[in-house]
Amino acid sequence: MSHSAQDTVPAIQTIDVRRVYQARGGRSIGGAQAGKGVTALDGVSLTVQRGEIFGLLGRNGAGKTTLIKILTTLLAPSGGQAYIDGMDVTRDVIKVRQIIAMVSGGEQSGYGILTVREQLWMFAQFYGVPSKVAHARIDELLSAVGLGDQANQKVYALSTGMRQRMNLCRALVSDPEILFLDEPTVGLDVEASRAVREYVRKWMGENPRRTVLLTTHYMFEADELCDHVAVINHGQIVAEGTTDDLKRGLQEHARFQLEMAEWLPAFTEMLRERDGVVDAQTEQRNDRTQLRLALLREEFIVPTIASINEAGGRVLALRRIEPTLEEAFVRLVGDEAESQREGEEAQR
Ligand SMILES: Nc1ncnc2c1ncn2[C@@H]1O[C@H](COP(=O)(O)OP(=O)(O)OP(=O)(O)O)[C@@H](O)[C@H]1O
Ligand SMILES: [Mg+2]
Fold first, then answer.
1. Ligand nearest 23 Cα, by number?
2. What is the rounded distance in angstroms from the CA atom of residue 150 to the CA atom of residue 157?
3. pLDDT band per the 50, 70, 90 thresholds, residue 216
């Protein structure tokens, strides 16, 4: 394959991937899945380009871990195709495994009787990393995630968060090109979470071929780290794009909050009648007016403020209300109870 052709091959690609977990051993508890099994992935098509940090967002049970297990060759899809760097994950298992690594937040792997350094060293050996390179890499990784002082401590003596940070080092010691992080910062303290995010970003910056697919329940983390995100719900992708795309896509109107001198309730009606104003709400704040505006488009703010001035109002402060990724997420996947009902209806 020519170099340029190879560059256009996506790091990760899935086409209509499905996965059904068969109900095991007779009747399952909770009638909905009796006999039919659980459809964890229901036709997932995704493309992740080289150099991207891609976030997969979804509530508990949405199918995130299932998709990661398929992409990392640990689980077979029930249908569809999945490729890593153009290689089929069900056929080129060995080659795929050579360029990927996976860490999952909750995992408790590791050989307790080894020290942290011995454990990482052993993994480096599995992947044939030369000694000198391995030692240097282990030192760098341990200090990056704040485990420098634990290098000679036995693995069983690590706290949960320390063990998790060690697992990230383990994944990186083989120098993978494509890294899967399933909830990498769950259970980590503030400082350690930050160190992990910072290191992931630094690691990505060092080589343009590196790619990360991560899952997280922390929307700020996705917002901070990810170039692109996809939202998965009941095994289906319900939204995809940059985090800004998602926020914007869900915002029907441009929302503003204004502070006006004096309490001027009469402005509400006057503003509602203006072109471009979808809604206006006033609220008394001490002797001032707090005005919330929903406008058809952002540019309507200029004539709206002009009309406030003409009517004798004085604007003291103006703020655009930006939607957050969390709001976008909640609007997309609804609340738990609502989605439970939808799910049950779909099963019928
Ligand atoms: N080994 C299994 N056997 C049967 N069903 C499973 C199995 N693993 C997962 N499931 C089911 O598949 C669906 C998707 O689970 P998955 O673990 O992929 O979700 P997730 O998005 O990773 O959730 P979380 O945010 O809780 O980690 C769920 O309904 C789950 O109950
Ligand atoms: Mg999961």
1. 1
2. 10
3. very high
Task: Indicate whether residue 10 lines ligand 1 (CB < 6 A).
Answer: no
Distance, CA 41 to ligand 1 centroid (Å)?
Answer: 9
Domain co-membership, 211 together with 227: yes
* Residue 235 CB coordination number (10 Å): 23
Say if residue 57 is in the same domain as residue 196.
yes
Atom of ligand 1 minimally distant from the CA of 22: 4
Is the pLDDT reported for residue 73 higher than 50?
A: yes
Decide if pLDDT at 347 tops 60.
no
Average pLDDT over residues 258-270: 88
Residues 171 and 263 in one domain: no
Ligand lying closest to the C-alpha of residue 56? 1
Is residue 266 a contact partner of residue 272, using CB atoms and an 8 Å limit? no
269 and 313 inside one domain: yes
List the structure tokens of 25.
């051993």
Q: What is the pLDDT of residues 240-260, one digit of tens each?
A: 999 999 988 767 788 999 999
For residues 265 and 222, state if they share a domain.
no
Cβ(62) – ligand 1 distance below 6 Å: yes
Q: Which residues contact 308 (CB under 8 A, 6 or more apart)?
A: 258, 260, 267, 271, 315
Rounded CA separation 270/284 (Å):
17
The upper half-sphere exposure of residue 76, i.e. CA atoms within 13 Å in the direction of its Cβ, equals: 6
Full-model pTM: 0.83
Q: Give residue 68's domain range.
A: 48-75+92-248
Buried b (16+ CB within 10 A) or exposed e, 107-130: eeebeeeebbbbbbbebbeeeebe
User: 214 with 230: CB under 8 angstroms?
Assistant: no
- Residue 63: phi, psi to the nearest 5? 120, 5
Do residues 244 and 258 share a domain?
A: no
Q: Which of 39, 66, 183 to mutate to test the pocket of ligand 1 (most atoms within 8 A of CB)?
A: 66
Ligand 1, atom 5: closest residue by C-alpha: 21
> What backbone phi and psi angles, to 5 degrees, belong to 155?
-60, -40
Q: What's the pLDDT at 341?
A: 55
Residue 55 lies in a domain: yes
